[in-house]
Amino acid sequence: MIFSDCYYNNILLEDDKVKEITIWVAGWFFVGLGILGLFLPFLQGILFIMIGLAILSSRSQTVQRFLEYLKSRYPQYYERVEAWRKKISDWRKKSKQ
Questions:
Q1: pLDDT classification of 97: cutoffs 50, 70, 90
Q2: Count: domains in the chain
Q3: Of 23, 28, 40, 85, which sits 20 to 30 A from 94 (CA to CA)?
Q4: Is residue 13 pLDDT above 80, yes or no?
Q5: In a domain, 80, yes or no
Q6: Is the pLDDT of residue 35 over 60?
Q7: CA distances for 2 relative to 5, 12, 14, 34, angstroms
């Protein structure tokens, strides 16, 4: 019994690590795609950067500080990030059910 409980807890820890890595990779992928989109006319650069920041904001203090700066300096962009953050949060809640 003790062995199976430890095994189960280890699987949960590995799942959390996989989720954490997936969030980091997805966030940076969108930020990179956004930076690429700033130079390519067919990609919406700002949109992808905002999506990436919304994803990373749940994990990174640096991104959270940047979003506070964005809120004070460019409130219209901050509202977009918040809208995407809410969509992502709702999506994650639906996927857990």
A1: low
A2: 1
A3: 28
A4: no
A5: yes
A6: yes
A7: 5, 15, 18, 48
- HEC string of 11-52 equals HHHHHHHHHHHHHHHHHHHHHHHHHHHHHCCCCCHHHHHHHH
Specify the length of the chain in residues.
Answer: 97
Contact (CB, 8 A) for 17 and 52: no
Amino acid at 94: K
For residue range 49-78, list pLDDT tens digits in order: 888 888 888 788 888 888 888 888 988 877
> Which range of residues forms the domain containing residue 80?
2-92
Is 97 part of any domain? no
Nearest to 63 by CA among 73, 49, 83, 74: 49
Examine residue 66 and state whether it is found in any structural domain, yes or no. yes
